[in-house]
Structures are given as C-alpha cells and as structure tokens.
C-alpha cells in the first residue's frame, strides 16, 4: 500500500500484556492464570474456574462458597427484562441478538452501570455471569410458547441452566457436559470478541456495553458458530461407514471440514482432546453412540490427510455432539459459548482498565482529496 505495511486482521499484533490466559499453539497447551486446562478440567468446575479467571487465584473454601452464593442469588431478572425477552423471542429474534438486547437493557436497571471502580466492575461481572443462562433459557421457553422457569438457588451454575431450559433437575453426566464445556471456554487470550470488548472498554464505556460488543462479535459464524456446522455435517454423514467417503469427497472438492483447523493451534486443540472423552461418556449414558462413532471415523481421515498440513480437530469438532445429545437446539450453541466467555471478557476488561489506553488505530486513505462539490441539479 502507499502508506506502508497494513497488518490485515491484526494477525500476530500484540495489544497488551496479560496474565489471564496463554496458548502454546505448537504444543497444544492452554493455561488460565498459569493453571493447565487439563488440570482445571479434571479437578475444577465452572464456579471455581470463573473465580480463578476473574481474581487471579484459586479460591479458598469460604471464598468459593461466597462467590457461588453471589452468583446464585443474582440469577433472576427484573420482570421488565423477561418482558423484553418474551416479545423478541415470540417474534423469532435470534437468541444472540436477544442476549445483546437484554444485556444492554439490564444496564438501565443498575444504578452503578457506568461506575468503573474495581468493586462495581466485579459486582457487574458476577451479575452478568449469573444472568446469561437465565436470558438464554427464557428465550428458549418463550420462543416455544412455554412458561418461563425461574432459576433455582440450590443448583450449580450448569445444573440450573439445564433446569431452566427443560424443567427438571438434570442427571450428573448432562450437568458435567455443560459444566466442562463452560470451563473449557472461559477464556482464550484475544480472539475477535475479546478484542471487541477491549475496544469498547478502552473508551471508558460501561461493562454492560463492553460485554454487548463481545457478544456481537462472537455471533459471527467465523467465531462462535462452528460447532453447529460440525454437528450438521455428522447428521448429513448419517452413519460411521459413510464418514470416510464423505470426507474424502469434500476434501477432493476443496471444501472445508467444520470443526477442523485453528488460527493458533497447529496441533490437536487441548480442549478438543478433553471434551472428546466427555462426549464418549455422554453418548454411552444417552444410549446413542452414532454421532460419536461418526466423528471418530471423520477424525481418522483428518489425522491421515489433514494433520500433515497442521490441521487437527478443534473443540467444535466434539462439542456440537454434546449439545445435540442434551436436546439443545442449534441456535443456542453460540449463546452457551457466550455464557462461559462472559467471564473472560469481564476479566480482560477489568485488566485493561489498568492500562486504559484508548484504542485508536489509523487507516490508510486511498481515495481522492479536494473534490469539487457539485449542486444536486447539476449532477449526472
Ligand atoms: N478443512 C480443510 N482444509 C482446511 C481447513 C478445514 N477445516 N481449515 C484450513 N484448511 C486449509 C486451507 O484450505 C488452507 O489450505 P491451502 O494452504 O492449501 O490453501 C490452509 O489449511 C490454511 O488455511 P487458512 O484459512 O489460511 O487458516 P486460518 O488460520 O485462517 O483458518 C480457521 C483457521 C479456523 C478459520 C480454519 O481452519 C477453518 O475455516 N476451520 C473450519 C471452521 C472451524 O472449525 N472453526 C472453529 C475454530 S475453533 C473455535 C474457537 O477457538 O473459537
């Protein structure tokens, strides 16, 4: 360009220092606050990992119970917000758009919405984390003409979400499927949505608006939507024996296999490795191994044909199957991603405010200058 190099998509540009999460894309390692995702997946749960990501340390027993209690007691929404969700859901507005609208509207019910003190920001981060499942479940119920189910305080974050969706206390493996999905998605350094949150908070806007920016960017199919696409692929394949010919044909036509490849991971996505085991267990418990077996066959072809090009299964390769087996409709897959990532967005917004440098890049103008203004009647 006439103005010097342009870094398209800001690829590999460092925007800040962080101590929230780190990725080793070559070795396939993800850390939150220095802890390996493998350990957190094995020993922790959503509430504890959310605390870790927000506050930078694992909680003591009393800190964790206080934090969990605060989350649980913030789950309900003002009646006006339920009304907004109902009107939009009944008019078939997509749940990601409704999430944006409901979070925006909630700011109006918080007298401290624009307060950027640490204390107010942490309160808001907890409130937002607490209500996202309620908004999503309310959308699900209203859009199907079902009565809304109010949150239950004595259930975990994951169990309460499934309870508000389907009306009964979920079994252990279903709860674990949601809980582990949430743990694995809490943060991932600076993808587009987290960057959008940074841009918004750098103007000293309120945290609600910064989270809306994150949700808006996550909504796009290049970011949040691949697990749905992967699941649709397995449904199309239909049976394990059809997997190899399907994938070989698709690759021969130069098409992309959904749930495969990653901008940062050039090996097996550690989240995918962990979630695969859960999907196997969930499939066994639900008595439906078909999609797990199809995915395993697809994986064999991927490891044979695409791994040499550093293309491996990513988390979306497996997670859509779990959502499907839980009976969750496609349009809620990305909202559930947001339900988890709201923690990372909030942690990054709070961290970034310590630097508070306004994001204001430049663009290289290549149009004309000093063009003569022509009155409207003389224009051709
Ligand atoms: N299937 C087949 N070939 C692929 C795939 C795929 N899924 N992904 C990349 N390639 C090929 C691509 O055609 C190109 O080949 P060539 O060099 O011969 O032209 C090469 O690999 C490099 O591709 P790229 O588009 O330059 O790589 P990227 O880093 O921009 O793409 C990606 C990353 C995730 C957008 C891409 O791998 C993709 O489209 N995957 C499918 C969608 C998907 O699963 N997305 C979920 C990402 S993980 C969720 C998250 O962390 O938020």
Automatic annotation (TrEMBL):
Keyword vocabulary terms for this entry: Acyltransferase, Transferase, Tricarboxylic acid cycle
Annotated family: Belongs to the citrate synthase family.
Entries under InterPro entries matching the protein: 2-MeCitrate/Citrate_synth_II (IPR011278), Citrate_synth-like_lrg_a-sub (IPR016142), Citrate_synth-like_sm_a-sub (IPR016143), Citrate_synthase (IPR002020), Citrate_synthase_AS (IPR019810), Citrate_synthase_bac-typ (IPR024176), Citrate_synthase_sf (IPR036969)
Gene Ontology biological process terms from the UniProt entry: carbohydrate metabolic process; tricarboxylic acid cycle
Catalysed reaction, written as an equation: oxaloacetate + acetyl-CoA + H2O = citrate + CoA + H(+)
Pfam annotation, one family: Citrate_synt
Signal peptide range: none
Protein name: Citrate synthase
